[in-house]
Specification:
Blueprint lengths: L1 H44 L11 H8 L6 E5 L5 H8 L3 E5 L3 H13 L4 E4 L13 E4 L6 H11 L5 E5 L10 E3 L7 E5 L2
Parallel strand pairs: 1-2, 1-4, 2-3, 4-5
Antiparallel strand pairs: 5-7, 6-7
Helix pairs in contact: 2-3
């Protein structure tokens, strides 16, 4: 009798282990699917996550000339490093990201860095940008015509737009920040 009980207990324990193990595999597969899906969705909508060089944060801050209390939006904020830098200068920094992995990284950074920023898992095309003082983005040029219409329609006069790496083809920048062996930044002002 004791042997039968021991076998039954081992079988139940083994069965629980395999069910737990299968649930973990399913969870991991679902998580991988969500990460890959969000990655491909972000590629279709704007660009995949390519982090801005940390060395260029200071250049952005100088170009943007952020004043305390200004609203700064980062379209496709990735890991949020630009938001943290802008918030340390007194900006109300808010970013939008649709790729799951960089969004999670930004949220984890937000937990450990006590700088007050906002990171939303949202498509920036669906956001009204009318209260922005500065809008930054590092996106692919194929969406620029649509983005330019959105920015000119929604942003207030005097709002600054900063493009990282690629300029708008049909919009003359007010200032270009070029540094040898580094990507350029283009400053536009809504007039």
């Amino acid at each position: 009798f004791r042997t039968k009980c021991l076998r039954a207990w081992r079988f139940k324990s083994s069965l629980r282990y395999h069910l737990y193990k299968n649930k973990m595999y399913i969870f991991i597969l679902i998580l991988l699917f969500l990460i890959l899906f969000s990655f491909f969705y972000s590629v279709i909508r704007a660009i995949s996550w390519v982090p801005m060089w940390s060395k260029d944060l200071e250049r952005f801050l100088n170009l943007a000339n952020i004043q305390t209390g200004q609203k700064v939006y980062d379209l496709g904020c990735g890991d949020g490093k630009l938001l943290f830098a802008a918030a340390k200068y007194g900006a109300k920094a808010e970013g939008f990201e649709i790729s799951l992995l960089p969004y999670i990284i930004a949220k984890v950074r937000q937990i450990f860095d006590k700088t007050k920023i906002t990171v939303k898992f949202r498509d920036f095309w669906l956001i009204n940008l009318s209260d922005a003082d500065v809008v930054f983005f590092f996106l692919i040029p194929r969406i620029y015509p649509k983005l330019k219409k959105k920015l000119q329609k929604e942003l207030k006069l005097g709002a600054k737009v900063i493009a990282y790496v690629w300029p708008f083809e049909d919009w003359e920048p007010d200032q270009v920040d070029k540094v040898k062996n580094r990507p350029a930044m283009y400053l536009y002002t809504i007039k």
